Amino acid sequence: MRLIIHRNYEDASSWAACYIAERINDFKRKSDRPFVLGLPTGSSPLGIYRGLIKLYQEKKLSFERVSTFNMDEYLGLSADHPQSYHRFMMENLFSHIDIDLTRVHILDGMAKDPEQECRRYEEAIAAEGGIELFLGGMGSDGHIAFNEPGSSLRSRTRIKTLTGETRIANARFFGGDPSKVPSTALTVGVGTVMDAGEVLIIVSGSGKARALRAVVEEGLNHMWTLSCLQMHPRAIIVCDEDATEELRVRTVRYFKDIEKETIRTFSGKNGGGS
Ligand code: GLP
Fold it and tell me: Is residue 132 lining ligand 1, measured as CB closer than 6 Å?
């Protein structure tokens, strides 16, 4: 796992946007297939989405040959519901770039048979050749997508019941009322994320510091589902200084030194595994 620490959220987000752009452009030079990108919602990726839109506007990036799969969707919210992840993605990314909307995949929160919808989603990912890069955020309890504490680290796309902590955290999008946050969601599994060629997670703010410590310094544990990254051959967490508040000074120094060395070795390129 690489841990890339930036001074603040803006710097971490621009770095991640440039990293994704570089990966898409590099892939385009080598393959005729579309680049398959996994995407999250939440406030954490917003800076990255702004960065990607800017790169598109500056003509440094095109999404014409990009397919996307979103991580999750609330069960019972239609695509046009203001708080649905469909709407979130349209408003914060898709309506600002040149993506072909037929290549956009988001779980259907209104599916008549949600279990079948989850199976269909896994098949659609496989049919596209798998996810090249999965971008994600992290919940304050260390969850990835909606894989709440206790989720199987081999789980696939399925229905999950949300914890009280997650509903309280997401209440800000529902007029501050946790009871208005749907109690269930459809979500890709930890195993689905782990199958991606690469995983890039953005973490920001001291509210995530406790979870970041568990994910980086403690063992693989289903109570902090993002700790699965410890088993991924190409995993990056990009974060701001505030999110490192609970890490040991020694851990922070170690990852900063490693990154300095990586930059020297790859002469500024974003290479290197984990
Ligand atoms: C929800 C989403 C996650 C996201 C998390 C954190 O639970 N399902 O994908 O990472 O919220 O959201 P935020 O970035 O707003 O802190």
Answer: no
Q: Which residues pair with 236 in a beta bridge?
A: 2, 200
Tell me the whole-structure pTM to 2 decimals: 0.95
Q: Where are the alpha helices (DSSP H) in the chain?
A: 9-30, 46-57, 85-92, 114-127, 164-170, 190-194, 209-217, 249-265
Question: What is the rounded distance in angstroms from the CA atom of residue 8 to the CA atom of residue 94?
Answer: 26
Question: What are the distances in angstroms from CA 269 to CA 2, 15, 259?
Answer: 14, 12, 11
Q: Which residue type does 176 have?
A: G
Q: 261: pLDDT confidence band, cut at 50, 70 and 90?
A: confident
Query: Which residues participate in catalysis according to the annotation?
Result: 72, 141, 143, 148
- Among 49, 170, 193, residue to substitute to test ligand 1 (most atoms within 8 Å of Cβ): 170
pLDDT digits (tens, 9 = 90+) for 37-92: 999 999 999 999 999 999 999 999 999 999 999 999 999 999 999 999 999 999 99
* Closest Cα to atom 9 of ligand 1: 145
